[in-house]
Write a structure and sequence with these properties.
The complex is a heterodimer of chains A (610) and B (214). Chain A is of the alpha+beta class and 610 residues long. Chain A has 14 helices and 17 strands. Chain A is rod-shaped and about 170 Å long. In chain B, strands 2-1-3-6-7 form a 5-stranded parallel β-sheet, sandwiched between helices. A two-stranded antiparallel ribbon of chain B has the order 4-5. The chains are: A alpha+beta (610), B alpha/beta (214).
């Protein structure tokens, strides 16, 4: 054990001791004089019922303890002089006596005993009609019955007007058997409810232990609430007194199981002591039963403190508030137990009020609090779990939606790609194949018509340009690059070469694959025009963001004349029309140094489009 | 000096004829065989043991990529050149990863195929503007080209060269612009191809391109 554990244990023991001392010092229900009533603190104890020999005794009187299960019978006599003639209803009030009695006033029996009921913690108020009393000397006689083993006692008694004594009697009855009966009902109810809960939740042993502890409390509360003895003196004494000890064992088991602790050594020792106690009581002389159960209950103080110890060691498993509630209930409970054990064993200085029946009420409150607190915590946990799960579900749903959207996008792209492939294949192998074979046929058979040949070649070039543009949907510069690789051979055949000057990506006014294709067509046409007509040796292709320019160093031509003759005018008009449709300015300049076709992309139009 | 042999695997007879014509018209190379299917092509590959294989990707009985792989795994020196109508990123990457030395588009000038083959024989890697542009768009993550494309494994110089190729510049022009020789430009392009082939993250790029995420 660590120093901290030792310190904790010492703190616990000291606090229990202090509390026990506190209960003792407060001396609840101490018997004090009542205004308007006569209090008897001394009387005579007679040797015989007819009281031939008597000796004076002071109250409270405790009969000597004897190891005997027989009933003690004690005869008392009190002289009660009245100064005035009695008027109205009188009463004799006995706050504390044990266990039963016959009461005589001036020789008349006013209360006969109710044996075998044991009224050991029940006050008694016996009404006395005024006619039984007289001015001057009166005599109160009582016969007390009680088990010799438990040292029957008689505390100070009162004679006075019934109305004066009744409130005192009521108060005492409430704190004694009244509260015990309340506790009895409560425990009976709780044990039923807890055992029912356990029936449906067998895995949670805590409910079983708590339910059984309430049942144990019910047994000893019968003794406190009703004074009813079930079975012989020995059996009943053993049953009620040890059920209190059993109660402690069950609470210990509940706390352990609640905290998820394995059964402690204290539990096992306690259980062994209980079983041994039962065996010894059953086999031993009946007169020793009470002494034996008292001894077992003295020993029970240790496991009761152990309950506190288990709680202290595992305080981290509880919320600070739960621990405080439990500790505030457990410590006084243990103190009440200690006080009761002390009352069982010692007669002087007397304490007349038993308080042990309050203990189960406090303990049940603590244990129920634990269960409710756990329930609240698990409900909170459940809420958090539900919230977290909803969050996860929402996130997963979003992910799923995203991936569905992505998948749909991928499928769309794949479909587009497949369709594009099919169209490209058809164009290339179908139309392209026909054009190539037709061209080859015309050339092979020398069918002559140069215009037809040129038209077929142009168609092939345009087809290639279309195929290129399908592959390069977003870059006009690359389309021009592809154009160059295809026309390079043609240029070589005509003794021409490119001066290639692509410095940037031309920004077509309205961007798009189709627009790119149209621009590339214009460029291609300009280049083939140069090949056909210009008699040049260099074609300069210049491009940057704002323009494309195709220039040659050929002979140039007169636009007006050419347009009139319609030779290339037709082609030029087509180029212009297409450029206009694209929002591109096409300018053509031709002089002796060559021809220059210039495409300008108006930047402000493009910016406005963005 | 004997001519280097070329095997043509192409299912379209007219294209095959134009390729044969272009190869035979070039000095130093000659067609050793011609196949119309993948199966026939791989058989001829081992029978003819050519120096260069021209292969179409879309063959009736499979993908030409398998012929590229077979060439790469062959026990003699043989370079595969893909000739395809399609030049999309996924196909280009797949072909280059399989070990193709070049990727030529059918829409381009087929009559230049002879020059491309000669370039391969000299250790170069022919590349068309379209292909260069696709490499750029996939290798440079994001729209704006990064100052140092460390993610893609391309150096600034390589990115610069690819961009110039995509705009239609020839090797010697690029060399002049950058102040290096045409051979060095060729070496850079060969390096780019090699990076694609060995690049550890390239498999992911290929997969991403195939399903169309990129």
């Amino acid at each position: 054990m660590t120093a901290q554990a030792w310190r904790g244990g010492i703190v616990l023991l000291v606090s229990v001791a202090v509390l026990t001392w506190g209960v003792y010092a407060l001396n609840f229900g101490r018997i004090v004089p009542i205004d308007g009533a006569q209090m008897f603190t001394s009387g005579q104890l007679c040797a015989q019922p007819e009281c031939r020999d008597a000796r004076p005794v002071d109250l409270p009187y405790f009969a000597p303890r004897a190891f005997d299960d027989a009933l003690e019978t004690l005869h008392f006599r009190f002289e009660a002089p009245l100064e005035a003639p009695p008027d109205g209803l009188y009463a004799v009030y006995l706050p504390k006596y044990s266990d039963n009695l016959d009461l005589f006033v001036n020789g008349a029996l006013v209360r006969a005993n109710t044996l075998p009921l044991r009224k050991w913690n029940t006050p008694l108020l016996v009404p006395v009609p005024a006619r039984l009393l007289q001015e001057g000397p009166n005599r109160i006689a009582l016969t007390l019955y009680g088990p010799k083993a438990e040292a029957p006692d008689l505390q100070a008694l009162f004679l006075g007007p019934h109305s004066v004594l009744k409130p005192h009697y009521d108060t005492r009855w409430f704190w004694g058997p009244g509260l015990a009966r309340f506790a009895f009902g409560l425990m009976l109810l709780l044990s039923g409810v807890l055992l029912l809960i356990w029936q449906s939740r067998r895995a949670e042993r805590g409910y079983l232990w708590l339910g059984l502890s309430c049942l144990a409390a019910v047994i000893f509360l019968i003794h406190y609430a009703f004074g009813q003895a079930l079975g012989s003196y020995r059996i009943w004494t053993m049953t009620w007194a040890l059920s209190a000890s059993f109660y402690v064992l069950l609470v210990l088991k509940f706390i352990s199981s609640f905290l998820g602790q394995p059964p402690s050594l204290a539990e096992r020792v306690h259980f062994f002591v209980l079983v041994a106690g039962v065996v010894v009581i059953l086999l031993g002389p009946p007169g020793y039963s009470f002494a034996l159960v008292a001894s077992v209950n003295v020993l029970t103080v240790f496991p009761a403190v152990a309950v506190l110890g288990v709680l202290w060691r595992n305080r981290s498993a509880l919320s600070p508030f739960d621990f405080t509630v439990l500790a505030l209930c457990l410590a006084p409970s243990v103190a009440l137990g200690c006080f009761e054990v002390w009352m069982m064993g010692f007669n002087t200085p007397s304490r007349s009020m038993h308080l042990f029946h309050i203990m189960p009420i406090i303990m049940s409150f603590a244990c129920l609090w634990l269960i409710v607190s756990q329930l609240i915590a698990s409900m909170g946990g459940l809420e958090r779990l539900t919230a977290a799960q909803s969050e996860i579900i929402a996130a997963k749903s979003r992910e799923l939606e995203d991936s569905f959207a992505r998948l749909a996008e991928v499928e769309k792209r794949q479909a587009i790609s497949q369709e594009r492939d099919r169209i490209m294949l058809d164009l290339h192998d179908g139309i392209g194949g026909h054009l190539v074979s037709t061209l080859a046929y015309i050339k092979a058979n020398d069918l002559g018509d140069a215009r037809l040949e040129r038209a077929l070649e142009e168609a092939l070039r345009d087809l290639a340009l279309m195929l290129d543009s399908m592959e390069n949907t977003d870059s006009l510069a690359t389309l021009l690059g592809m154009l160059r690789t295809r026309l390079e051979g043609l240029l070589e055949e005509h003794g021409l070469e490119f001066d290639w000057q692509i410095h940037g990506e031309p920004e077509v006014p309205v961007p798009g694959p189709s627009q790119n294709l149209h621009v590339a067509r214009i460029v291609q046409e300009a280049i083939t025009n140069v090949i056909k007509h210009a008699k040049a040796d260099t074609i300069t292709v210049y491009a940057d963001e704002a323009r494309i320019e195709i220039a040659d160093n050929g002979r140039g031509f007169d636009q007006v004349v050419q347009a009139a003759s319609g030779q290339i005018g037709h082609g030029l008009l087509g180029m212009k029309r297409r450029a206009q449709a694209l929002g591109v300015d096409l300018t053509l300049r031709s002089d002796a140094d060559g021809t220059r076709v210039r495409l300008d992309f108006p930047q402000e139009v493009r910016r406005a489009a963005e | 000096m004997t001519d280097q042999t070329v095997l043509i695997i192409e299912d379209r007879p007219d294209i095959a004829a134009r390729l044969t014509e272009a190869v035979n018209a070039t000095d130093g190379i000659t067609v050793a065989g011609q196949a119309g299917t993948l199966d026939q092509g791989i058989n001829l590959l081992y029978d003819c043991r050519p120096r260069v294989v021209l292969v179409d990707i879309g063959l009736p009985d499979g993908s030409g990529i398998d012929a590229v792989k077979a060439s790469a795994a062959a026990d003699w020196e043989v370079d595969a050149l893909v000739v395809s109508i399609f030049g999309d990123e996924a196909r280009v990457f797949e072909a280059l990863q399989a070990g193709a030395k070049g990727y030529i588009l059918k829409s381009g000038a087929l009559r230049q195929i002879g020059d491309d083959i000669l370039a391969v024989l000299e250790g170069g890697s022919p590349i068309s503007p379209s292909i260069a542009r696709h490499l750029l768009s996939v290798l440079s993550t994001g729209a704006a080209p990064k100052p140092e494309a460390s993610d893609s494994g391309l150096t600034d110089r390589e990115t610069e060269i690819l961009r110039a190729v995509a705009r239609g510049y020839k090797r010697h022009e690029i060399g002049t612009q950058l102040g290096i020789s045409a051979g060095t430009v060729g070496n850079h392009i060969t390096n780019i191809y090699r990076k694609l082939k060995v690049g550890s993250n390239m498999e992911a790029v290929v997969q991403a391109t195939k399903i169309g995420v990129l």
